[in-house]
Structure formats: C-alpha cells, structure tokens
Amino acid sequence: MRKGTLLIPSGTDADPNRRHLFVALTDPQGGDGRVLLASFSTVTDRYYCEETCVMDPEEVEHPFITDRSFIRYQKLRWETVEDLQLGLRNGSIQQMQDLSEQVVERICQGVADSPFAAPKYKKFLERSQR
Predict the structure, then answer these.
(1) Across 72-90, average pLDDT
(2) For residue 114, what are the contacts with CB-CB under 8 A and spacing of at least 6?
(3) Residues 11-38: pLDDT tens digits?
(4) DSSP 8-state secondary structure symbol assigned to residue 3
C-alpha cells in the first residue's frame, strides 16, 4: 500500500463527481488494517495553500498531477484496507501508479512539520515507521 495512489471521491453538492489524488503514507496498521492517506490539491489563488509541502509536476512525476500542487495536511485521513478494496471493486475508487519513495518521504516529513496535521495522524505515522 505505501506509495500507492488512489483517486477517491471528494466532491461537494456543487461538484459531486470531483475526485482527489490520495497517496498511502503507510502500509496497513493495527487490527483493522488502517492506512494513512494524504491528498494533493492544486495551488490556486481561490483558497489557502499550505506551504509545508508544495511540489511541481516534475517533482511528483505522476500523470494526474499536471499543476503545482500541495499536500493538504488538515485533510489527512485513514481508511481500512477493507473499505479501500470495496471502493476499488465497486469503481468509486481508482488505483493509479505509485509515487517514488523520495516523494513519499517528503510528504511524510510534512506530516511531522505541518501545523495542520492532527496529532493522532502524526502519532500513527510515527508508530508505522518503527
């Protein structure tokens, strides 16, 4: 799972079909097999861009990332492998190509550095890296 990317529904009432690219920062952990996920957002003047981890498409090297993007650490989340597999089977989630270890390490460092990452996610990631 770690380094794997998924397009996951993240739409609103105004844009119900929108999906964001999420990257798995951990392999499954704990009894329920939770995976920590971080999402990419496009840098734009329309909303706040967290500066902790901003990357150009050339750095990310992923076909879905075509514009300067940032990791939205306030939207970190975990999902169980079971729920992710269900989404893959029913087509609501689409599996994409893996990211490089270097990019994932940079995103993980941002979890520790970001003032927006919730402490529960910081602890979860720290425990997974032992």
Answers:
(1) 94
(2) 50, 52, 53, 71, 73
(3) 777 777 788 899 999 999 887 899 999 9
(4) T
pLDDT at 119: 97
Exposed/middle/buried for residue 78 (C-beta within 10 Å: 0-12, 13-18, 19+): buried
Cα(111)–Cα(117) distance, rounded to whole angstroms? Answer: 6
Say if residues 70 and 43 touch (Cβ distance below 8 Å).
yes
User: Half-sphere exposure of residue 23, counting CA atoms within 13 Å on the CB side?
Assistant: 26
> pTM of the prediction?
0.92
Q: Which residues pair with 89 in a beta bridge?
A: none
Residue of 47, 48, 42 lying closest to 70 (CA atoms): 42
Apex CA 2: angle with CA 108 and CA 11, to 5°? 80
List the one residue out of 32, 31, 10, 6 whose CA is nearest residue 19. 10
Distance CA 113, CA 52 (A): 7
Contact 27, 34 (CB under 8 A): no
The predicted pLDDT at position 10 comes to 82
